[in-house]
Design brief:
Pfam families: Ribonuc_L-PSP. The chain is of the alpha+beta class. It has a single domain, classed as 2-Layer Sandwich (60s Ribosomal Protein L30, Chain: A). 29% of the residues lie in helices and 27% in strands. It contains three helices and seven strands; from the N terminus they run ββββαβαβαβ. Strands 1, 2, 3, 4, 5, 6 and 7 form a seven-stranded mixed β-sheet that branches. Helix 2 links the parallel strand 5 and strand 6. Helix 1 packs across helix 2.
């Protein structure tokens, strides 16, 4: 069965010709990294908590477009441009929004993120088998 490319209007559009919002391969869905932009493409103002909430909402919308929910997430990768400052507060939002049991997760500090210097980017792997 060929991979299915997921596109929803309920999350920021991918850059044309660069990547897909997500790809379903069998029982797995792999999302691209999402940043704290609204579906209209505007970066969320405020703090890293506000942008983390938006990122998770974006990813949830993409998962819905593939017939899944946050409960299907089995692995998450989080990228933070200021790990020492933002790790604790991103964890608070994570605990609030992600259902139990929590997925496996990696959190990495990076020098810079795309999209105008955002401070958080998250990608998911989800499974529905």
């Amino acid at each position: 069965m060929p991979a299915e490319h997921i596109l929803t209007q309920d999350a920021p559009a991918p850059l044309p010709g660069i990547y897909s919002q997500a790809v379903r391969a069998g029982n797995y869905v792999y999302t691209s990294g999402s940043v704290g932009m609204t579906k209209e493409g505007q970066m969320v103002e405020g703090n890293v908590q506000d942008r983390t909430r938006q990122v998770i909402q974006n990813l949830e919308a993409i998962l819905r477009g593939s017939g899944m929910t946050l409960a299907n997430v089995v692995k998450a990768n989080i990228y933070l441009s200021n790990l020492s400052r933002d790790f604790p507060v991103v964890n608070e939002v994570w605990k609030e929004l992600m259902p139990d049991p929590k997925p496996a997760r990696t959190c990495i500090g990076v020098a810079e993120l795309p999209a105008g210097g955002t401070d958080v980017e998250i990608e998911f792997t989800a499974y529905d088998g």
